[in-house]
């Protein structure tokens, strides 16, 4: 399969940001900057790489292979790691019935995956993919994008009225749908491959202009979280800041040369994404036992733990690639 260098770089840097954004003891401003665009980035790339060459039946079979089976597998793995906390722990997990996560799997609300918070991404992208296959694939990308923008605008205006989360992450999926369709438009229009953006001096000028704007706007809007339907101080700024962050990351990646490390991270992201929180759970408990919470070491731990979690997940990915490739959609 032909690799697109800037896509590999974007996925690699994106998954690093996802892991770092979940690391304990991270600086608040870094957290805000990461969350302002890191999940929209993955929905954007999913749309950018979406194929229009399959029939509905073929597309659904591919969806089952690439997303539904990995979702089931990583849910099972997360459940197995959660069970010891239920039986032998003394926290919130021990006060729940052992089958509680299984019942939540049926409803799959975005805020209900307490065994592994990142699992919400799978049903969210599954819902978006089904909508794309059945409805939006019949439309021109620009038409689908406009519809998704109208839906997102309506959601941003009325988000305060949502008291109960929708099943199968449908509410968060309506947000992700906008970035997915934006990815399709970017691919169809050839925006990321334009001649102007191939000129390095122009890219550097854009970065010098856009980076300060992104930094100030993201911090001013404050904490956001697509999973929690939290869009900051001014909700309508959220999609604009996210798009700006995605574009800036693309500009940075367009300056980078092909890298085996980026390609490995991009390929391994299917394992890094759902497994790193499990590793963090054990690392954090161990570190709290041996380190003083006021220690200067805590300022370094988010970066050390992120690197360690990524390395471990890459080993797991390589193992699954050889032993159980279908579990990771290969």
TrEMBL record:
Pfam families: Acyl_transf_3 (PF01757). This is Acyltransferase 3 domain-containing protein. The keyword tRNA-binding does not apply. The keyword Transmembrane applies. Keywords: Membrane, Transmembrane, Transmembrane helix. The chain crosses the membrane at residues 71-93, 113-135, 142-159, 201-219, 231-252, 264-283, 303-320. Signal peptide: none annotated. Residues 4-316 form the Acyltransferase domain. It comes from the Bacteria.
């Amino acid at each position: 399969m032909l690799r697109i260098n800037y896509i590999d770089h974007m996925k690699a840097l994106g998954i690093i940001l996802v892991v770092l954004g979940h690391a304990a003891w991270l600086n608040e401003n870094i957290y805000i900057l990461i969350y302002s665009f890191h999940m929209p980035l993955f929905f954007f790339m999913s749309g950018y790489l979406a194929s229009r060459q399959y029939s509905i039946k073929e597309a659904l079979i591919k969806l089952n292979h690439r997303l539904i089976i990995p979702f089931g597998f990583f849910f099972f793995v997360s459940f197995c790691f959660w069970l010891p906390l239920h039986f032998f722990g003394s926290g919130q997990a021990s006060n729940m019935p052992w089958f509680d996560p299984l019942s939540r799997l049926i409803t799959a609300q975005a805020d209900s995956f307490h065994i592994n918070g990142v699992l919400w991404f799978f049903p969210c992208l599954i819902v978006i993919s089904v909508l794309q296959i059945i409805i939006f694939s019949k439309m021109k990308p620009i038409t689908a994008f406009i519809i998704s923008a109208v839906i997102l605008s309506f959601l941003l205006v009325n988000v305060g009225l949502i008291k109960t989360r929708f099943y199968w992450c449908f509410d968060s999926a309506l947000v992700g749908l906008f970035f997915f369709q934006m990815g399709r438009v970017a691919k169809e229009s050839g925006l990321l491959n334009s001649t102007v953006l191939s000129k390095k001096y122009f890219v550097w000028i854009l970065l010098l202009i856009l980076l300060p704007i992104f930094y100030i706007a993201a911090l001013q809007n404050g904490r956001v979280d697509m999973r929690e339907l939290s869009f900051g101080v001014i909700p309508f700024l959220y999609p604009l800041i996210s798009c700006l962050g995605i574009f800036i990351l693309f500009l940075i990646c367009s300056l980078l040369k092909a890298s085996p490390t980026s390609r490995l991270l991009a390929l391994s992201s299917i394992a890094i994404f759902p497994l790193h929180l499990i590793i963090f759970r054990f690392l954090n408990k161990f570190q709290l036992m041996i380190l003083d919470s006021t220690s200067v070491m805590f300022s370094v731990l988010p970066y050390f733990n992120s690197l360690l979690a990524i390395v471990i997940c890459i080993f797991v990915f390589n193992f699954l690639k050889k032993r159980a490739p279908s579990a990771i959609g290969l």
